[in-house]
């Protein structure tokens, strides 16, 4: 799945398959400017920062169990969001510091370090890397991803895929080759 935020005409948090199909609103009420987004892949939760409401909120992948982690001036100007173990990590763009927030109750907010010009944050740790399994976009015997001549996108599950073409090309009737 692909998770993303949109704060155009109607602010929302959404998800879809990697090929863009099955687009679903997860959150579309009591939300103004969702920006940074982070996933808890193990427990299947979506965290986001709303820079207009000065809040960090969480919801499960189906849009249930929504609640506010933290709200108020102490988290104003947040950008970037990452989740690791019991904490959320974010960047305060006002004073260029990394903040650590307890993701279960919003307490224990600590400034960890200062940075010159950060706008995003990621946690890289072996335990956060999902095990790779066989999937529909693996290279075929000819080296083509999923048998697609240009682009292979996973679909509704890891066994299904959709082929797409680069700009200026059209997908052939076989659903794999681009002309």
Mean pLDDT: 88
Q: pLDDT below 50 for ≥5 consecutive residues: which ranges? A: none
Question: What is the succession of H and E elements?
Answer: EEEEEEEEEEEEE
> Mind describing the biggest β-sheet?
4 strands, antiparallel
Q: Rg, please?
A: 19 Å
Quantity of strands, as a count: 13
Q: What's the CATH H-level homologous superfamily of the largest domain?
A: TolB, C-terminal domain
Bin the strand percentage: 35-45%
Q: Tally the helices: what do you get?
A: 0
Instruction: Classify the helix fraction into a percent range.
Output: under 10%
Domains, number: 2
Please give the CATH class of the largest domain: Mainly Beta
The span between the termini is 28 Å
Strand order of the largest sheet: 4-5-6-7
Oligomer: single chain
């Amino acid at each position: 799945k692909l998770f993303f935020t949109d704060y155009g005409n109607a602010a929302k948090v959404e998800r879809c398959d990697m090929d863009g199909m099955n687009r679903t609103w997860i959150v579309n009420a009591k939300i103004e400017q969702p920006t940074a987004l982070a996933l808890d892949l193990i427990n299947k939760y979506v965290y986001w920062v709303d820079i207009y409401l000065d809040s960090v909120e969480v919801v499960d992948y189906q849009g249930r169990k929504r609640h506010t982690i933290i709200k108020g001036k102490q988290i104003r100007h947040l950008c970037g969001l990452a989740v690791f173990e019991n904490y959320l990590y974010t960047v305060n763009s006002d004073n260029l510091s990394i903040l650590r927030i307890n993701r279960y109750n919003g307490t224990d907010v600590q400034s960890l370090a200062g940075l010159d010009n950060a706008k995003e944050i990621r946690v890289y740790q072996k335990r956060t890397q999902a095990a790779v399994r066989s999937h529909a976009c693996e290279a075929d015997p000819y080296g083509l991803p999923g048998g697609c001549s240009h682009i292979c996108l996973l679909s509704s599950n890891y066994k299904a895929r959709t082929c797409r073409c680069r700009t200026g090309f059209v997908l052939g009737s076989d659903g794999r080759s681009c002309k």
